[in-house]
Specification:
This protein is mainly alpha-helical. It is built from nine helices and no strands. Helix 2 (14-25) runs parallel beside helix 4 (55-80) and helix 7 (119-129) crosses helix 9.
């Protein structure tokens, strides 16, 4: 089955997916978002679909898992957010805003620490920081993946040492 044929079959299931999603969310907009996430995952992981498998069941499983993961993420996020009118003195420092002057000094220190890294360490570290995966960095720089991991680890240690004055108190 080609990817185009698979995508067509997935799109054909969108109405039944919407109906199924409404049972989870009880909201039309959230149901549409869930359907969109499900279809995106299905298309992305097309290679994992085994021809002959029940496509509707496979899509329902993706939807159920997506809903559960999103629910867990929301619960976890809400557990960190204080919903009280008054903020306790212990949490006051967490809610305080800092002025831009302090941020400017912090950013200057980070840039100084980054500039101390040699290019061999700076490039993989900055790529990793920007969201590239180890294998992508390895392919881009044409070096072994173990070397990429080592360089990022060493760059982290150097940065941590250079920025040790910003260590958070536990």
């Amino acid at each position: 089955m080609t990817k185009y044929e698979f995508n067509s079959l997935v799109v054909e299931q969108s109405d039944s997916l919407k109906h199924y999603a409404k049972k989870f969310t009880n909201d039309t907009e959230d149901a549409n978002d869930l359907v969109q996430d499900t279809m995106l995952k299905a298309v992305t992981y097309f290679n994992n679909f085994i021809e002959g498998t029940n496509l509707k069941g496979w899509l329902y499983t993706i939807m159920k898992n997506t809903f559960i993961n999103n629910y867990r993420r929301i619960v976890k996020t809400n557990s960190f957010i204080t919903k009280e009118e008054e903020i306790s003195s212990a949490n006051l420092i967490l809610s305080a805003s800092k002025n831009q002057g302090e941020n400017k000094f912090v950013m200057e220190d980070i840039h100084t620490a980054l500039s101390k890294l040699s290019e061999d360490y700076y490039v993989p570290f900055s790529m990793y920081f920007e969201g590239f995966k180890y294998h992508e960095i390895s392919e881009y720089l044409a070096i072994p993946i173990g070397t990429v991991k080592t360089r990022i680890h060493i760059a982290r240690k150097v940065m941590k040492k250079s920025l040790s004055t910003y260590k958070l108190i536990d």
